[in-house]
Structure prediction request, 114 residues.
Amino acid sequence: MDNQTEIDFTNGVSIFELKQKSYHNTTNEKGKILSTNEAKAKYQDEKVLEYFKLNTKHPASPTQVWRASFTIATPLTSVRRSFTNLTKAGFLEKTEIKIIGNYGRQEYQWKLKN
Prediction:
């Protein structure tokens, strides 16, 4: 897990800052729009990680975490991006367990990496 740094925020929840960007600026945003999108993506990553830290005994799919931790205003694709970021950073690992997701298709579950 060498591409992360722990940060303790004032609310007492230990979260992280990835050395890689949380937001993938594929639309070449700039200025305030870019910084807003980066902040939202980082918050989503933090929220997904927090879910797993609070539910260490149960693997979960992106759809399950989205339903439990986000409102409909957060796209499911953003939660999936967070899963990818957190997996690449060494926080999560994909299991072999599959469940039926939001769209009637199977999706894998992840768990907090030991």
In short: Residues 4-112 form a domain with the Arc Repressor Mutant, subunit A fold (CATH 1.10.10.10). The longest strand covers residues 92-100. The chain has one domain: 4-112. The first helix runs from residue 31 to 54.
